[in-house]
Amino acid sequence: MTPPLLRAAALLALAVAPALAAADSDTLVTVRANQPGPVINRNIYGQFSEHLGHCIYDGIWVGPDSAVPNTNGYSNAVLAALKDLHVPLLRWPGGCFADEYHWKDGIGPMEKRPSMYNSHWGGVVENNHFGTHEFLNMCEMLGIEPYVCINVGSGTVQEAMEWVEYMTSDATSPMANLRRANGRDKPWKVRYLAIGNESWGCGGSMRPEFCADNFRRYNTFIKNYGGSPEDRIYRVACGASDEDYEWTDTLMKLAGRQMDGLSLHYYTIQTGSWEKKGSATHFTKDEYFETLGHTLRIEEFVTKHSAIMDKYDPKKRVGLCVDEWGIWTDVEPGTNPGFLFQQNSMRDAILAALNLHIFQAHADRVVMANIAQMVNVLQAMILTDHQRIVLTPTYHVFEMLNVHQGATSLPVELRTPDLAQSKEKIPTVSASASRDAAGKIHLSLVNTNPDAPTTVACTLVGAPLGAPTGRVLATADITAHNTFDLPHAVEPRAFTGATVSGDRLSIVLPPMSVVILEL
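-> structure tokens emitted (519 positions)
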């Protein structure tokens, strides 16, 4: 089924671009540069790092004594890859882990930190060598905004209040002095705070009314230290999963005035069943279409949750924060089921681009999105194996499309046919456009058709059309992926399939491809 936004855009394109209807093309696109929309928040390209499997330990963090080349314990290869990705925001320490994490166990001399049992993910014992200092110092090194998730499930209000003081206060006060005793004089900049995680489930099995009251209680004791607007903490309340619209309605009704953001979680499950989710690398064409059909449902969820938020917040002060999203498959054979290690194929790159386009289309309400997760877990950017790393197809999509970060969205009118396979119908092409601070216009396109190229006829209204340049990510095999032995099987290359004729741009998208163009 074609998502509502794409159906509406298709109808609009038919009404306003009759000249394009005569074009000999599969898909018609009009970019309205003269009608700029809202800014695309950089944090839509955010990441998520939970204490889960090898995301932190043996992923980001190898320890200062490791044989893996490192800087103060951080993997050099991972740091370099993340720097090239321009990660705007990073969520930590969870996830379900956050509601069993007690931050004071992760500060001070490493050899004196108590170990903890990770009951959610694999039943392993962690040494707490990666804690508050290690996370915030890494964010500072890479220019990433930290997004800290507070323990609401098993923690206390006092514990949360003291953690915020420890991280952000410059006063001569107990927690700020404790931070200084642990080697950090000045406070860190921590703007984003999640008050709990999945409180309807692993974060406390709460009812929405209780969660709203609990948020208000914690929010009362989360203090802003410093006098500038930049020092004010952006407080994200725990929102719904999938289509739980009652949860959103209750949270907005009872706590909407106190929050700055409200979260939403949605995972794409190929089969639709949590018991057997399907393979990351062995799937049929029917399963490919089924997966993309499931992921496009996020359009419906974002639209309907936003409508509820509009009822209580018509000025859109509260942001929608999709702080967990991505594809969740069965783990790779032979790996720990609790570590959620899965491979990452060209299908997942297509999936990531479709999600990013949807978030950008809702830039008036969606202010943050955090793909799950950054390293070695679920739809990861990076896979590691001791001294070797692999950049996944999803990594390449995030790197290609990050030109949209912080840019002004431009309306895209789209007419594209549906592709039908088995029980699924999905649009052939997805498109998103923006103008950056330097005035450059970028158009990103996705061809979901795994079998055939698609020709796009594009008109740019309100700006001159120059010679386009761009890159493409495409493969001939829907299951193609990068491995430690073949790390470059899927990676971007120069795109030469765009030609200009007068005021018209003709773009030939290869089968199953993501293209980014600078017009």
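The radius of gyration is 23 Å.
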